[in-house]
Amino acid sequence: MKANEVPQDGTYYYEGKKRACYALNEEGKYIIVPSNGWSAEEVVNGLAVDDMAASLEETRKAVLAGMKSPLCYHMERRQMIPEILAKTAGIAGFRVKRHLRPEIFRRLKESVLDRYAKALAVTLEELKTVPQ
Predict the structure, then answer these.
(1) Which residue spans of the chain are classified as CATH 1.10.260?
(2) What is the pLDDT of residues 79-128, one digit of tens each?
(3) DSSP bridge pairs for 23
(4) Does pTM top 0.85 for this prediction?
C-alpha cells in the first residue's frame, strides 16, 4: 500500500488515537504512516472481541458450576495461557495447569495465590471468585 492510500476511516477501537502503519513512499521504501483505522479492521476486531467475550462467559459459567477454578477465568480475562501465567507468576507450567482444577485450587497456600494475584493484577479476594 502506498503512503497516500493508508486508510483514515476513524474506527471505534482507536478512540480517536492514531496507530502506525507501514506503507511505501514515492521512492519505493517503507515508511511509517499514522492511521485512524480502517472499517474492515473494525469489523474483524469486533468479531474477535465478541468471540473472546463469549468464551470468557462460558468459562465463568464453568467456574460457577464447579468445573474450573477461578484462576482459569482470570487467566482468560487477561488473555493468558498457562505457559505465560507460569512465567509471569514464577510457577512451573505443570503446576499452573493443575491449579486450573477447582479441587486443587481450593487447597493452595496464600503465598501461591498471592503470586497469581500479582501476575494477574487482581486482589486475592477477586482471584478466589468470579463475577455473578
Answers:
(1) 41-127
(2) 999 999 999 999 999 999 999 999 999 999 999 999 999 999 999 999 99
(3) 31
(4) no
Q: Helix 110-120 crosses helix 70-77 at what angle (to 10 degrees)?
A: 20
On whether the CB atoms of residues 77 and 85 are closer than 8 A, the answer is: no
Helical residues (DSSP H) of the chain, grouped into ranges: 39-64, 70-77, 82-89, 93-99, 102-105, 110-120, 124-127
Q: Could you name the CATH architecture of 41-127?
A: Orthogonal Bundle (1.10)
Place of cell 487477561: 78
- CA distance linking residue 35 with residue 29, whole number of Å: 18
Q: What is the three-class DSSP state of 47?
A: helix
